[in-house]
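new request in #modeling-help
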Amino acid sequence: MAAISSLSLKTPTKIQSLTKTHYSIPLNLPFSCRSKSKRTGSIGSRTRIRCGLLIEPDGGKLVELFVEESQRELKREDALKLPKIKLTKIDLEWVHVLSEGWASPLKGFMREDEFLQTLHFNSIRLEDGSVVNMSVPIVLAIDDSQKNLIGGSTSVALVDDENNPTAILSDIEIYKHNKEERIARTWGTTAPGLPYVDEAITHSGDWLIGGDLKVIDPVKYNDGLDRFRLSPAELRDEFTRRNADAVFAFQLRNPVHNGHALLMTDTRRRLLEMGYKNPVLLLHPLGGYTKADDVPLHWRMKQHEKVLEDGVLDPETTVVSIFPSPMHYAGPTEVQWHAKARINAGANFYIVGRDPAGMSHPLEKRDLYDADHGKKVLSMAPGLERLNILPFRVAAYDKTKNAMAFFDPSRPQDFIFISGTKMRTLAKNKESPPDGFMCPGGWKVLVEYYDSLAAAENGRVAEPVAS
Amino acid sequence: MAAISSLSLKTPTKIQSLTKTHYSIPLNLPFSCRSKSKRTGSIGSRTRIRCGLLIEPDGGKLVELFVEESQRELKREDALKLPKIKLTKIDLEWVHVLSEGWASPLKGFMREDEFLQTLHFNSIRLEDGSVVNMSVPIVLAIDDSQKNLIGGSTSVALVDDENNPTAILSDIEIYKHNKEERIARTWGTTAPGLPYVDEAITHSGDWLIGGDLKVIDPVKYNDGLDRFRLSPAELRDEFTRRNADAVFAFQLRNPVHNGHALLMTDTRRRLLEMGYKNPVLLLHPLGGYTKADDVPLHWRMKQHEKVLEDGVLDPETTVVSIFPSPMHYAGPTEVQWHAKARINAGANFYIVGRDPAGMSHPLEKRDLYDADHGKKVLSMAPGLERLNILPFRVAAYDKTKNAMAFFDPSRPQDFIFISGTKMRTLAKNKESPPDGFMCPGGWKVLVEYYDSLAAAENGRVAEPVAS
C-alpha cells in the first residue's frame, strides 16, 4: 500500500517493515504528556493524564489495561494455571477496545451494575457522583459448561484461537445473560436479522462474566493495518504534537466521497471562524466487525488512501486512524458510543450525520431508526455534555457546478442525491458516477472491490492489491 | 364502605356525602405551604413550593396543571373551538397524573425530546442542567385522521367520552409513534401479550402529540373512591400537618397480608432508630389501569380497609391514598416511575420489593424480569439520588409462631412461603390460609371477590358491597 502523508504510525518500531514512507513520525512526544508507570507507581497499567489543550478523558484519566512489559512472562505463566475462556473474533475486538481505554473509565468487561446502567440509562455513575456515557454493553458471554469450569475461581484467562493467553480477567462476577432484554433495550427491536445479534449474541452463552481486565500482549491483527490502529493515548500524543486546539472526529464505515470531504473541509473552516487556531480532523474509519454487505476494512482503507493522495483533504490537519470497535448498527444508542470513545481519544467536536449507525429494518420496509433521532439523542445524552455536536449538513451533487455541494433548498432541481445503494450499483456495474462525485482513484478501488466480490466463488472477498 | 381512621379526605367539600366518618380532615392546612396563584402571579396553574421538612419535588416545585377556577368557563368555550381528541380511559388517567404534578416537572404529554430522553436515559435534563428521573413515556397517541383534523392548529381540546372538553393541549408537537421501539425500550421485550401494550399501544395511532396541558376540571371518577385520591399537594399538606419528618411510601396493587404489615411496622421502627421522630407511612395502592387478573381497585380498597380496621397498622402514622397512575408491568423501568412520583408527593423513603412491577413472561415459562433488577436499577437510577431505597425484607409464615415473620435462613424448615398464586387459589376455593397470614376481615373480602368473579356470567366483576 502506498503511503498516506497524513497518517501517523502506530509505533516507531514498525517503521522498518514499511517502504516508501514519508509519514510524520511522532518520535519526539512531549514527555509531560505521558506519565510513565514508574512515576505514577501504578503496577501493570499505564495511566495517562490530561495533555495540553485536549478534552479530558471520561472519568478524568485514560484507563489503559496492559500488563507492564516486564511482567508479561509472569502473567502468562499465571494465566496458564487459570480456567480458560476462548475468545471469539468480536470478543477480541472488545478486549482491544477496553485495553486501550476507548471505553474509559471501564476497567474490563462489564459487571452487572455497569451492564444494567448501560441498558437502562446509557450512562454510568462513578464513585464521585459524576456520570459518564456508556450506551453499548461491553460484555463477555460464557455458557453453562464454561461457568462450571470456572467454578469458584476468582480469575480466568482469556485465550485466543490457539489457546494462547491474551488477557486475565480478575475479581470476576458471573451473572445472567438475558439476551432478549439486552437486544430489546440496545436496538429498540427484537426482530430477527440484526447483524451483530446474529453474529455475537444469538448463539452466545446464557451468562455474562465481568471483571478487571489486564491484557498480556497488546492486540495485533497482523493484517498490514496495525500501524493505522492508534490508541487513544497515541492519538492524544499526535494531536498534542500538532498543537491542535480543537479535534473534530468523523466516524465512517463507508467509502469517502467528495460530499464527505466538503463537509470535513467546511467544518475546519467553521472552527477557524469560531476562533480556533489549529483544528485537526480525526478521520476515523471503524475497523471492527461490520455486516457482510459493508465494504471490508482493507478496501475502505485503500479507498481512503486514494482520496488522501488526491489532496482532497489537507494532510497537515488530518489524522487517519482505525477505530477498533465492532459495529452494532444500533442507531441512536450506538452513536453515543462512537462519540464517547472519541472523547477518550481527544476529540472535542463530533460530526454526526443523518441516521448514524442506522440500517434498514430487518423485516419491515423502512429504516430501523428515525433519521433524526441519532443527532437528537446524541445532543441530549448524559455524559456527553462536554462534547460539541456538529450536525452533518446535507451535501448532494450540484449539476451546475459538476461538484458535490451543500444542498440549496431554493434550487432543488440543480441537485442529484446519490445514495449508498446507487453508488454501489454504479460501482458493481463498472459505471462511473458524475464527475466530481468521488476522486477517480477512489472510485477505481470501489469498482475493483465489487469486481473481486463478483469473481469470488465462495463469496469471500479478496484483499485489495497494492497499486 | 366503613370508615378508615387513618384516611385523609380528598377535599373537605366531599365530606357531606359520607356517613360514619371519623377521618382526620386536613382543614387547617398551614398557609405557608400553599402558594396561591394570586401571590405567585402565575395564571391558570397552582404552583407549590417546598413545605417544611419534606423532600423537594422534582425540578424544585410541584407543577400542577389546572385552569384557575375563575377561568374555567372561558377555557371551556375556547376548547369548543379547537380540534378535538377523544381520550381513552387510560389517556384520562394520564391527564389526571399530569395535572396533579405526579410527573413534575412535566408540563403535559411528552414532546419528542422528552420522549427520547425517557426511552434512552430514563431521565430528563432540565434547562439548569439538573436531571430528573422519568422512565415511563407519558404520551398521547393520535391516528392519521386525527392528525389531519388538527392540521395547522397549535392547540387541541382533549375531550371525554361524551365530547366534553377535559383539557387543552397547547403549543403542540406531533411526532412519529414508533410502537416497536417504544415497547422494546420500555419493556425490554416485544413479546405479544404485555397487558398495557395490548390495552393502550397496539391499536393506538401512529403519531404522538405532546404539548402544554391545562386541565379545565380536575379529573373525578365518581366511583366512591375519589375521596381517597389525594394529590401530591394534598399529601404534602397532610404530612406537614402530621409533622412528619420522614415519609416512607409503600406502592401496592395486591391485597395486604400480615407480611406486608410486618414490613411496614418494621420500617417505621428502623426509621425511629435512625433518629427520625415521626416517620409517616404512605400506603399507596395503584388506582389506574391494571391487568384483568389483578384484584380490582374497589375490592383492594375494601380489603385494605378491613386490614386497617383490624389495627394492624397505626392510623396515627399511616396515610392511605390512591396513586392514580395506570400500570405498565415494566419491572425495573416502571419501578423508577413509581418511586419518582412518590418523591413529588413528599416521600423520601421508598420500599422496594422483589420483582417490583414484574409479571410472568407472556410467552416463556419464566419471570419477565430478574427479581433483583428492580431494586438494583432503582438504586442506581439518575434523578433518584435523593430518595432512600429500602429493600423489602422477605417475610414468610413462621409455623413456630403462627404468624408472618422475617424469614430466618438458619431454620428454613419453620417457614411456609405463600405465593400470590397460592393465596388466590385458597381464596377461590374458599379455603382459609394459616392463622395469622391475613386478618380474617381482609381474607373474607378476598373470598367474596373471587366468589363474585365465579358467579359473574359475563366475566364482569361485581362491586364490593358495604358490610
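bot summary: The longest helix of chain B spans residues 258-273.
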